[in-house]
Amino acid sequence: GVFLYNHLQQKVRNAEALAQKYKQQQEALSAQLQVVYEHRSRLERSLQKERGEHKKTKEDFLVYKLEAQEALNKEKQDSMNRYGALSSQHKILKNQHEDVKKQLLDLQLQHNSLKLEHRKTLESHNQRYAQLQQEKDSEVTNLQDTVLKLREESKLLRKAHQEVHSQLLSAQAQMEEFRQLKEALQKMPSFK
Questions:
Q1: Which helix (H) or strand (E) holds 106?
Q2: What's the average pLDDT block by block, 10 residues per block, for the chain (192 residues)?
Q3: In the chain, what is the greatest distance between 2 CA atoms, to the nearest angstrom?
Q4: What's this model's pTM, rounded to 2 decimal places?
């Protein structure tokens, strides 16, 4: 009976020790579970916060995407309008370029025509100038010959004038002599 009692006591002590051990393990597990619960609660709050932020970010992204799409559409429309305006301006400038090109061609043809006409006029003018120069040289030569002849005639006329003057003086002297002689004769009684 003692042996059985001791054996039962030993079993009770073992059972108590095991119960104490299990209790400690349970307390440790409770504490760990509390930590896990708190950690889970924090994770859930963090997840909830992350979800809220993700939802806000998603909404912000959708708003940004919508605004970007609208801006892109507006810029695309503006680009199309600018392209249309530039295309029209390009057509106008192309037509103006063609007109200027045509005008340039006409002016080149007109320039060539005027150049040819100028060359003909210049040749005609040069021929006329040469002819006039020749006529002038001929006229100058003729005038020089005429001047020489007139000078010779002037000399001859001067000489003749001097001779006539001398003869006139001589005739006047003779007339004076005749007059004096006549007067002298008239005074003589025998002449009367």
A1: helix 2-187
A2: 88 91 92 94 95 95 95 95 95 96 96 96 96 96 96 95 94 92 82 54
A3: 256
A4: 0.38
Q: Which two tokens stand for residue 173?
A: 């002297």
One-letter amino acid of 171: A
| Burial of 60 per CB tally in 10 Å (0-12, 13-18, 19+) | exposed
What is the C-alpha end-to-end distance of the chain, expressed in Å? 254
Tokens of 66: 């919508």
Q: Which residue type, as a one-letter code, is found at position 130?
A: A
The two tokens of residue 59 are 């909404």
Q: Which two tokens stand for residue 60?
A: 């912000």
* Whole-number Å distance between alpha carbons of 10 and 7: 5
Do the beta carbons of residue 130 and residue 137 sit within 8 Å? no
Q: Residue 189 — φ and ψ, nearest 5°?
A: -70, -30
